[in-house]
Amino acid sequence: MAEAKKEWYVVNTYAGHENRVKENLQRRVETMGLQDFLFRIIVAEETEIEYKNGKEVKKVKNLFSGYLFVEMIMTDEAWYIVRNTPGVTGFIGSSGGGAKPFPVAEDEMESILRRLGMGERKVNIDFVEGDRVKILSGSFSGVVGTVEELHNDRQTADVLIILFGRETPTEIDYADLEKVEEM
Questions:
Q1: Which residues contact 34 (CB under 8 A, 6 or more apart)?
Q2: Least C-beta-crowded within 10 Å: which of 21, 54, 79, 160?
Q3: How many Cα atoms are found within 13 Å in the side-chain-facing hemisphere of 98?
Q4: Is residue 142 domain-resident?
């Protein structure tokens, strides 16, 4: 048990039932005394504000429909309890046949937590609005753009990049940006 540590796992649920499954899982943690093995349970949601007929309307948008994130120590008992919670259809990263799932990579989970305003790691940046930056990873890896706006709460920046001949704002994590020194 010495090597067991808290890690994040992705649990598959029926789409639209994520919050119900989260409640079921939290209830099971309390009633079955699993507080030492199951910690945070997160449904990745963002609130969007729309304006309809001149009124502000808030909409909650699920970023990963059909999935929730569970921070846990993967023991046989904890794995069994989560798998058999009503509404859970399985774990992502498990090949089936009794194989335990692989955890989510720390940097990927940190990126998701930052987007939700729950990130723990703060990235120190050396760029400001108007600076040229290079994107280090993801679909736009290697692309150079201009910082339009910084979001310190989420640790992201809106970067203007040229896409299909147009300047397009793209939200990129601070950790994935590097200042480009002008010659």
A1: 28, 77, 78, 81
A2: 54
A3: 1
A4: yes
pLDDT tens sequence across 12-34: 999 999 999 999 999 999 999 88
Please write the tens of the pLDDT for every residue from 64-116. 999 999 999 999 899 999 999 999 999 998 776 777 899 998 888 887 887 77
Comparing CA positions, the residue from 88, 69, 108 lying closest to residue 20 is 88
Q: Can you give the length of the chain in residues?
A: 183
How many domains does the chain contain in total?
2
pTM score > 0.90 for this model? no
* Domain that includes residue 164, residue range: 132-179
Report the alpha-carbon distance of residue 144 to residue 153 in Å, rounded. 23
Q: Report residue 171 as tokens.
A: 């939200």
